[in-house]
Amino acid sequence: MADQRKEIHMPEIEADASLYLTALQEGWLQVKVPVPFSLKWVNSYLIPEVEGYTLVDPGLRTDNAIKVWDAVMKRQGLQWSNIRRIVLTHQHPDHYGLAGYAQEKSGAEVYMTRKAHAYAVRLWGDGSDFSWQLQALYEKHGMPIEEREAIAENLETFVDMVSPQPAVTYFEAGEPFRMGGLSWLLIDAPGHATGQLCFYQRERKWMLCGDQVLPHITPNVSIVPGEDGDPLEQFLHSLDALNKFEVTLAFPGHRDPFAGFNERITELQQHHARRLDKMAAMLAEEPRTAYGMCEALFGSRLNGNAHQLRFAMSETLAHLVYLERKARIASSDHAGICYFSAVKG
Ligand SMILES: [Zn+2]
Ligand SMILES: [Zn+2]
């Protein structure tokens, strides 16, 4: 469960920091910062500068994440004051959550895009009604009250894991950006997270890709209350755009740096095409709510896990919105609940 109070004690952190640390090219360090979800860890990258380091995506604020950072810093002979700049690929809590803590410790500026920051404020700012909006959305799409309450409770646990929140410096796609002595192209990469950036280094053919393209994991694409549009369309469009870059090595937000970036994009595109076909076929058999579809697709894998259920439900909705916009399915209202059915064509 994604609950900090149930975080497992990890004695090996103090014993052997090298378990969480991989030396990469040109003095880069990959730090595997633990997260209490099935993702296991988020990648932070320490990139050497003329003085100190740029830190990309510090992780989620949990006791274990802080222990890993303390152990890694000690092993490398570093202090927080060696962190000169914090860069966020996107605003999801597993990447953003520790940014305020790292800023307090280091005094470094935290860079993120304006759109990404707006999302963070909307979710975790004072007077946020995001959880209520999500409840309303899920109710309309057939989710029972017990599940909605479990999700609201789970969302609550994230507030501590993103606190304190950082003061932010904005940077945007298309702006010039230097990191590790190299110039990087900042690429708008929406779909997984509005305002996410990918970073491309032309001479090295490196892509720092946040969660947009991950090895072994299908990046989550979700309907987010308060954001209009079609996130799956945006995601697929972004994959097309990223596929035009020649990439020899990709640095993802989860798992390990990998070659075969373009092949991985093709696999992700095929995954979504298959999923869309399967869902359209299921709706040709009988109309279903988004919740009914989510259960049919993910059922046993959810196992009462509110965190997983939220991802699965919002991902199911993203596919349904995409199919409806392409006029492959249609929705209708029955007593306040939305049902989807296939369009015969
Ligand atoms: Zn993410
Ligand atoms: Zn992530």
Question: What would you note in describing this structure?
Answer:
With 345 residues, this protein is an alpha/beta fold. The protein has a single domain, classed as Metallo-beta-lactamase, Chain A (4-Layer Sandwich), CATH 3.60.15. The protein is built from 12 helices and 14 strands. It has helices at 12-15, 63-76, 93-96, 99-106, 114-124, 130-140, 145-156, 158-161, 231-242, 261-285, 290-302, 306-325; strands spanning 21-23, 29-34, 41-48, 53-56, 83-87, 109-112, 168-170, 176-179, 182-188, 197-201, 206-210, 249-252, 329-334, 337-342. Strands 1-2-3-4-5-6-7 form a 7-stranded mixed beta sheet. A 5-stranded mixed beta sheet has the order 8-9-10-11-12, with no helix packed on it. It has a two-stranded antiparallel sheet with strand order 13-14. Strand 11, helix 9 and strand 12 form a beta-alpha-beta unit. It is globular, with a radius of gyration of 20 Å. The chain starts with 11 loop residues before the first helix and ends with a strand. 44% of the residues are buried. One zinc ion binds at residues 42, 92, 94-95, 211, 253-254.
Question: What's the end-to-end separation, in Å?
Answer: 43 Å
- The SSE order reads HEEEEHEHHEHHHHEEEEEHEHHHEE
Number of helices: 12
State the share of residues found in helices, binned by percent.
40-55%
User: Cα-atom Rg, whole angstroms?
Assistant: 20 Å
Features:
14 strands, alpha/beta, Metallo-beta-lactamase, Chain A, seven-stranded mixed sheet, 345 residues, globular, five-stranded mixed sheet, binds zinc ion, single chain
What is this structure, in a nutshell?
The chain is of the alpha/beta class. The protein has 12 helices and 14 strands.
